[in-house]
Write a structure and sequence with these properties.
There is one protein chain. By secondary structure, this protein is α+β, with helices and mostly antiparallel strands. Helices cover about 30% and strands about 30% of the residues. The protein has three helices and four strands; from the N terminus they run H-E-H-E-E-H-E. The protein has a four-stranded antiparallel β-sheet, with helices on one face. It is globular, with a radius of gyration of 16 Å. It starts with 8 loop residues before the first helix and ends in a 9-residue tail after the last strand.
Length: about 120
């Protein structure tokens, strides 16, 4: 069965996963990052996120490669376009008053070499 993904960054990423044989029926740990123009994020925002989500971590800026700091939220769920776009919108809505935004997500999985 051919799945058609929306023509945007999230759809493209999901399309690549489907080509790799990703099992969309399974549950995964999905990472979402909230980026900021300045660091550190306000303590009020961190507390709010910790109330809503079980796995919240601060990823400090790295001096060696100019990586800005970000907040990582890890959610256990089935991966879908709707889930990703809804989570990104929700996290941005929560973080925006504090100068944050969510544009990135990632999922770790095993690649099915037989489909490549």
């Amino acid at each position: 069965m051919m799945i058609f993904w929306p023509d945007d960054e999230d759809g493209e990423a999901l399309h690549k996963l489907s080509i790799e044989g990703f099992d969309f029926s399974a549950g995964y740990s999905i990472d979402f990052s909230i980026d900021f123009d300045g660091w550190p994020p306000p303590a009020d925002l961190v507390a709010l996120l910790e109330q809503r989500y079980r796995n919240v971590g601060l990823c400090e800026p790295q001096d060696d490669d100019d990586s800005p700091g970000f907040i990582m939220i890890v959610v256990e769920a089935q991966l879908s376009y709707e889930f990703v776009t809804t989570m990104k919108a929700t996290l941005t809505e929560i973080a925006e008053p504090y100068g944050g935004y969510c544009e990135a997500w990632a999922v770790t999985h095993d690649v099915d070499d037989s489909s490549l």
